[in-house]
Design goal:
370 residues, alpha+beta, Beta-lactamase, globular
Length: 370
């Protein structure tokens, strides 16, 4: 009996030591990222790191509003990370046999081809997912900034405009394309797009999550850019319905990381890397874009990183997942910079480096003799 008690005590001690060591890995991750957040002088941010089979490790810094600290359970605007949810809803429709990636947009929307602009009849669902539908940034304000947007609700007016280039012939980032994907999802399900997106999330995370339609409010202060006086959130009035499928959701960083972890298993991620084989994946974060995600090759580790970013006045959002699913990481913040692309790429590098250091720390913990 004494021997059993000794072995039990030793096992408990080893378990406690392993748990303590894992907590130290989490703390190192937090310190690494917080140092970068402080250096960038971001007023508030939320960060999450998700490993398979574990709860997200998450933390927040700064104030949500004057006198109220930002918490890890406060939902923040996702900006273009919302496209991840829309893209996942489209992949569900493909998996369920309702569409294929080659399905034509006009067939899903029930639009007659004689009434569309040149090239529009050839737009496929896969073209829209990969920003290769031929939409350039159209003259005038984006749909989300129009008092009477054409998408959703009047998409036939958009589809009557000739395309700038043939579908599939090149990458042109387009919020309009994802708005049209939302329109297609809504039309196919005979339900509001927010209901379709909510069902997509609940299919992975259960009925209770922080994902919802973005509701700007005084409870969360979004900050003007310090290097661009005109980039003040209070100067912009977004049409959230037009923004919804492209950038109009809110959630916590932890729930976004959970969705990356459960919604995109490694075998699925591989199928989303549809860039040409000779695309220089290691020469820059935005050089290669597949379906839904940019694809970056980390040459030091030989791993692909699938990542997506978002930016609106007062919003920075970055999400990244390693191709083997070893980790997913998300940052949401309440301010951006004038050169938001470079700013977001900085956070991609910060999150990725900290997550890799965390993975090495955990591997070291597992390899120690008990």
């Amino acid at each position: 009996m004494l021997c059993k008690a000794v072995y039990a005590a030793l096992g408990l001690a080893a378990s406690l030591h392993s748990s303590w060591a894992s907590d130290q890995c989490d703390e190192h991750f937090r310190i690494d990222v917080v140092q970068s957040l402080r250096a960038a002088a971001l007023p508030a941010a939320q960060v999450a790191l998700k490993l398979p089979g574990e709860h997200p490790f998450t933390f927040a810094i700064g104030d949500a509003s004057p006198g109220r600290p930002l918490g890890v359970d406060d939902a923040l605007p996702l900006a273009s990370l919302s496209k991840i949810v829309t893209g996942l809803a489209v992949l569900d429709a493909v998996a369920d046999g309702r569409w294929t990636l080659d399905s034509r947009l006009i067939d899903i929307l029930g639009v007659n081809s004689p009434h569309v602009g040149a090239g529009v009849e050839r737009i496929r669902i896969g073209d829209l997912l990969g920003h290769r539908a031929g939409f350039l940034r159209l003259p005038g304000p984006d749909e989300m900034l129009r008092p009477h947007p054409r998408c959703p609700g009047r998409s036939q007016q958009l589809l009557a405009i000739p395309l700038a280039r043939p579908p599939g012939s090149g990458f042109d980032y387009s919020n309009t394309g994802y708005c049209l994907l939302g329109e297609a999802l809504s039309h196919n399900a005979s339900a509001p797009v927010i209901d379709v997106l909510a069902a997509t999330v609940s299919r992975r995370l259960g009925e209770h999550s922080s994902f919802a339609r973005w509701q700007p409010s005084g409870a969360l202060r979004l900050h003007a850019s310090p290097d661009d006086a005109g980039d003040n959130p209070r100067l912009f009035r977004f049409n959230i319905d037009a923004l919804l499928a492209a950038g109009g959701l809110q959630a916590t960083a932890a729930d976004m990381a959970r969705l990356l972890d459960t919604g995109f298993p490694p075998e699925m991620l591989g199928s989303l890397d549809t860039s040409a084989p000779d695309c220089p994946r290691g020469l820059g974060p935005r050089r290669c874009h597949g379906l839904i995600f940019h694809v970056l090759l980390d040459p030091t580790r030989g791993r692909r990183l699938f990542w997506r970013d978002g930016s609106l006045p007062g919003v920075t959002a970055v999400a990244v997942k390693r191709d083997d699913g070893k980790w997913s990481a998300v940052l949401l913040a309440t301010q951006r910079r004038q050169d938001w692309r470079q700013f977001n790429e900085l956070w991609l590098a910060t999150l990725s480096a900290a997550a890799e250091a965390h993975a090495q720390c955990r591997a070291s913990v597992r390899s120690r003799p008990e």
